[in-house]
Amino acid sequence: VGKHSILIKESSISQFEKIDQEDEFEIIISSMRLDVIVASLMKVSRSQVHEYIMQAGVQVNWVIEQNHSRICQIGDVLSIKRHGRFRLKVLKSRTKSERFVIIVGKTV
After folding, report:
1. Does the structural domain 20-107 have CATH classification 3.10.290.10?
2. What distance in Å separates the CA atoms of residue 14 and residue 8, rounded to the nearest whole number?
């Protein structure tokens, strides 16, 4: 490129591994609403999360989401600016008070 010589070498795709490491942890939430889940992940109040969502700070499945009352599904990927990317993996159980216990994976 320019005055410098470059060497291009063909490689097979199998030589490159996709490394997806996720730390798994549990959260207990009262509903599957976006603001409830994000508040639990960020460890802040829902009113603070509402402002954060309205400022386009949250993406659901790689699309900016500004509807704070959106119902999330298992398998959704939540990208939270300055906090990381989270995947809702498994609905593990329900508590006696009908709260959801969800296993979440955080991309490392």
Report:
1. yes
2. 18
Every domain of the chain and the residues it spans: 20-107
pLDDT tens digit string along 27-79?
A: 999 999 999 999 999 999 999 999 999 999 999 999 999 999 999 999 999 99
Largest CA distance in the chain: 70
pTM score: 0.79
Residue with tokens 């070498």: 9
Burial classification of residue 23, based on how many CB atoms lie within 10 Å of its CB (0-12 exposed, 13-18 middle, 19 or more buried): exposed
Quote the tokens at residue 77.
């990927």
Task: Read off the amino acid at residue 19.
Answer: I
d(CA 81, CA 7): 38
Question: What is the per-residue pLDDT for 35?
Answer: 95
